[in-house]
Design goal:
By secondary structure, the chain is mainly alpha-helical. The chain has one domain. Helix content is about 70%, strand content about 10%. The chain is built from six helices and two strands; from the N terminus they run αααααβαβ. It has a two-stranded antiparallel sheet. The chain is elongated, with a radius of gyration of 25 Å. The two termini are about 25 Å apart.
């Protein structure tokens, strides 16, 4: 599924770069791609520090920084897109760095996937059993017996 997306995205990027190169010249096109990479790296740094500060404030306020962590993931992906040469990836990356579009994207992602996350009834339970050799039997078996386990709900 991802392979066709990468092929189509690469072909579209090449088409746009060639079209822009024909319009404004090859040197200007290369300089424009380099300029967008520099602007993108500045915005990544600025938005990353801003999100880090918001996460710290959430933690200090006793709240979960889950939304800020998702913002960090979107900023990371946007940074990769901005540093990738091309105008389409730069546009998508820039949208990921703008706070209002980033909030819209994360909220939309949560709304679409909330049903998948919270309504599945598959339960997986694994239990780690310790070696019981050379152990003396306890008079009260519930007092000192510890069972370690992991629980997943998928």
């Amino acid at each position: 599924m991802l392979f066709p997306i990468f092929v189509v995205a690469t072909l579209l990027e090449l088409f746009v770069i060639v079209s822009v190169g024909e319009s404004i010249g090859a040197f200007n096109t290369v300089m424009l791609v380099v300029l967008t990479a520099f602007i993108g790296s500045y915005l990544i740094k600025q938005q990353g520090f801003s999100t880090l500060q918001k996460a710290q404030q959430s933690i200090l306020g006793g709240q979960s920084p889950a939304f800020e962590m998702m913002e960090g993931v979107v900023i990371l992906i946007s940074g990769v897109l901005l540093l990738t040469p091309g105008f389409i990836t730069d546009t998508v990356g820039l949208l990921g760095l703008l706070p209002w579009s980033r909030r819209y994207f994360i909220n939309h992602l949560f709304i679409q996937n909330a049903g998948k996350i919270f309504t599945q009834n598959n339960i997986i339970f694994t239990q780690k059993i310790h070696n019981t050799k050379n152990k003396k039997p306890n008079k009260n078996p519930n007092k000192n017996d510890t069972i370690e386990g992991e629980f997943w709900e998928e």
